[in-house]
Amino acid sequence: AGPGPLVIPPSQYFEGNDGPWSTFDLRVGTPEQYIRVLISTASPYSMIPLSDQGCSTSVFATVPPDCAVSRGNLFNPNDSSTWKDIGLYGINQNGVGLEANLGYEQRVQFGEDHLGIGLTGPGFDNQIVGGIATPEPFYLGIFGLNNQPMNFSVLGNDSSPSFITTLKDQNKIPSLSWSYTAGAKYRLKQVYGQLIFSGYDTSRFQETPVSFTMADDVTRDLVVALQSISYSGSTSTTLLSNPIDIYIDSTDPNLWLPAEACDAFEKAFGLTLDSQTGLYLVNETHRNRLLDSNAQVSFRLSDVKSGGDTVTIVLPYAAFDLTAENPLVENTSHYFPLKRANSSSQYTLGRTFLQEAYLSADYERRVFNVSACVWNEGAQENIVTIPSKDDPSAGTGGGPSDTSSSNSSGLSGGAIAGIVISVVLGILLAVAATIVLLRKRRK
């Protein structure tokens, strides 16, 4: 038997200066240094804060207490015998690269080193690792899920495979696919995030008939048609007047929406943009009023802008009730994760959205799935394999939308049930026929 799905346990921490967010463990270097990071569905590589400057006065006006712990721990390349320095690069140049559309700028000390995922999961040498110092735009480090290779054109087009590609090449997983949901501290007794390579967990989401096709742009591939956004609370109203194509990306916490949609959010929730921080800060009194209102926002998604199969993801106000800390604000404040997009290339459903959405991506078939999370206390994990496209026993499916079974057939649940019933009936008929035949012979 070949490899099966690989489940990466979360760190058991909620953290971040714009969260709280469920983090995951990385093991970096030789000997291994342990770092807690967020998941980036967009990045093909991982980035972690560096020990020499990550908590220094060169990047902080006032270094926060417990800085190293609050940044998920710091990495020291000098303490790793396997670190190979590549050089200092920006994460994007000339408008191309990680989060270029959102205006991210970050200088990164890139290198190759040993990288492992989880406290005990697989690890490989010569993986791309980026060291960061400044606390913005990345306060915590990230682990990248994208399958694109990392290219350093300055070094003669030197290319390094992504972590997920290495997992597949080393026969640790059956397919280039993953499932991720961000977790939700406000649900049940705090629900951690979930990350699975080559599989998904049917206990965490509501099955949907919708399958999405990846966009051609590999840097913004998980694009859906957002047909509508609606608000329901003391009143009901529409927050998005015209359908838009929008990118799902866990790297950024915010919802990046058209100006008119932001205006509608402001009106519905009584939000005011703070000019100094650029955040929608929410004071304690207003926050309590919003939490008590039981208001919620529904996002209707499809693969097409009108008609077609749809899935609706509902976010309660608690999903938007986030906390901003230094250096985003001087004093810890509640904020609403909404950003005004300057162009359609910035439309993004960020990490906030993935608290209530379960996302599965299959790079081999170029399809993905978005489903509504379900919240059942004590639900048992039910991990299903996403088989390789090259697996002769695999069907056409590659995600929750076709409910392929863990035997990698790619058949729908209904088809499998039908086959099981047919087989059972066949066995019963055969047994009955045998009994009749034996009785005739005895006579």
TrEMBL record:
Keywords: Hydrolase, Membrane, Protease, Transmembrane, Transmembrane helix. Residues 385-408 are annotated as: Disordered. Residues 22-371 form the Peptidase A1 domain. It comes from the Eukaryota. The keyword Transmembrane helix applies. One of its GO terms (molecular function) is aspartic-type endopeptidase activity. Pfam families: Asp. One of its GO terms (cellular component) is fungal-type vacuole. Belongs to the peptidase A1 family. This is Acid protease. The lineage of its organism: Eukaryota, Fungi, Dikarya, Ascomycota, Pezizomycotina.
